[in-house]
Amino acid sequence: MSTHLGFIPLDTIVTDFLDEAKSNQQAYLRIWNIAFRGMEKLGIDSFYKTLSVKLPINANLTVTLPGDYQQWTKVGVLNSKGEIIPLNHNDKLTTYADLSPDRIEKTQDATLGASDNGNIYWYNYWNGYSYTNVYGVPSGSPFVGSFKVDTNNGVILLKPDFQYDYLMLEYRASPQPGGEYYIPVEFREALIAWIIWRDNISIPAKTHVANSNIQMRRHDFFEARRLAIAAYKPLRISEAYQSSQELTRLTVRS
Fold first, then answer.
1. 153 in helix, strand or coil?
2. Residues 6+ apart with CB under 8 A from 56
3. 109 near 102, Cβ under 8 Å?
4. Are the beta carbons of 203 and 213 closer than 8 angstroms?
5. How far apart are CA 50 and CA 173, in angstroms?
6. What is the pLDDT of residues 12-56, one digit of tens each?
7. CB of 155 within 8 A of CB of 62?
8. In angstroms, rounded to a whole number, what is the distance separating the alpha carbons of residues 116 and 80?
9. Global pTM?
């Protein structure tokens, strides 16, 4: 069974379950979907695949979201060090006419002044030893811009003052059956317990024995989940000692 730095592929768990249940590969897609839902129930959705892409800017200052987009983690441009300089998330941007070629003209009113004139700057700050550029942008450089995501229409909206011809997007991708999704090995048995429970619950229960079996499977899952969470973040004496010391200091101060 393959592992990777304490992680195990979701596909391996699905395949092992099918072998143990003496099921055929025709059930793979159904069991894989059940397993992926189990990742969400176990609270380990942070182990989904995160992708980073460089996207072109459309003529109306929008960016088309990738087809497998679920949620963004970073939106920005690159600096000379290969770092992503983040844009500011701007809820004020309207989604009106965001698919129209003349979106900019339709969303501006020349009779009203903007709340800011674009003269926002990142200045150097003193870090205790020397002056350091915030986000790696030189002192006096204009703010890189702001954005808003319109998931309904599948685009990222940019302000008219955006000056770059590309946009860097890091995002969580939607799952693809058979994709390389890894979970901590501590959650393996809990995920198998989830699959067994949900696989059984889909079968109509016609007797009290069947209902009792489903309830037992449910109990097994939540117990396995509790043990997995405890094993994944074990109690360490040093951490407990530091926490108690901090609590003592706060008590004395109060």
1. coil
2. 63, 165, 166
3. no
4. no
5. 6
6. 889 889 988 888 778 888 898 898 888 877 876 556 677 899 999
7. yes
8. 28
9. 0.56
Q: What is the pLDDT of residues 177-204, one digit of tens each?
A: 666 778 888 999 999 999 999 988 766 6
CB neighbours of 81 closer than 8 A, spacing ≥ 6? 136
Nearest-angstrom CA–CA distance, 110 and 106: 11
Token digits of residue 118: 């674009």
pLDDT of residue 158: 93
Identify the CA nearest to 68 among candidates 90, 49, 82, 46.
49
d(CA 58, CA 199): 46
Q: Is residue 172 a contact partner of residue 76, using CB atoms and an 8 Å limit?
A: no
The amino acid at 12: T
Could you identify the residue written with the tokens 């008219």? 160
CB atoms within 10 A of CB 220: 17
